[in-house]
Amino acid sequence: MSTLTGAEIAAAGLTDWAYLNGGLQTRLATKKFATGLRLVDQIGAAAEAANHHPDLDLRYPHLDIRLTSHDAGGVTNRDLALARVISELAAAEGVAARPDVAKLVEIALDTPDAAAVRPFWRAVLDMREHGADGPDPDLRDDVLPSMWFQHSGSEEPRQRFHLDLWVPPEVVEQRIAAAVSAGGVVVSDAEAPSYWVLADAEGNKVCLCTWQDRDH
Predict the structure, then answer these.
(1) Per-residue pLDDT reduced to its tens digit, 27-71
(2) What CATH number does the domain containing 32 carry?
(3) Residue ranges making up the domain that contains 179
């Protein structure tokens, strides 16, 4: 089954969900733990019926959900279908979806020689290699943020680590404004709306990323 682009996902009209780096995410504002437990049970039954299973993170006031087709490497029509079912289950419980607070963090390491350093990070973090047959394999884990290796020159100074923060396009301007108000600066918007480069007062950088203007 082929994966869908960001534009195709946006056209599906899933207003309860945000598309973040290969997955659909949302937060259900359950407010009560018992409500969250009921939804987990209902979502579990729907997932078993569809033979397609989301990642669920239940906390006291909310339930975070991420949907992706691991075998396809992104979002497929299976994810859209299950997302619609989950939205219906939440609505029946009177639970509001908060896709605007969905976010995803990746760790990026700038390096001129990823092949030389990637085995160390895979070993010390006990992560698995993803996309080993491709040009840019990354490291993934069920608990830790994924880690990828961005090619850079060998000259100094260079920032070795930075964060990639994926957010819904609807909130990116608000997030940039808040960061600037808190003492940060916009280093570059040359690649916007795909991503903006921001930095704190000491020059430590973060890339604020959206699905827009990408081919996946």
Answers:
(1) 999 999 999 999 999 999 999 999 999 999 999 999 999 999 988
(2) 3.30.1360.20
(3) 104-209
Give tens-digit pLDDT for 154-203: 887 778 899 999 999 999 999 999 999 999 999 999 999 999 999 999 89
Do residues 197 and 211 make contact, with C-beta atoms less than 8 angstroms apart? no
Are both 61 and 109 inside the same structural domain?
Answer: no
| AA letter at 155 | E
On whether both 200 and 170 belong to a single domain, the answer is yes
What token pair was written down for 178? 């808040």
CA distance 56 to 13: 22
| 63: Cα separation from own chain's centroid | 16
Q: pTM for the complete prediction?
A: 0.91
Instruction: State how far the Cα of 197 lies from the Cα of 209, in Å rounded to an integer.
Output: 9
173: phi then psi, degrees, rounded to nearest 5: -65, -40
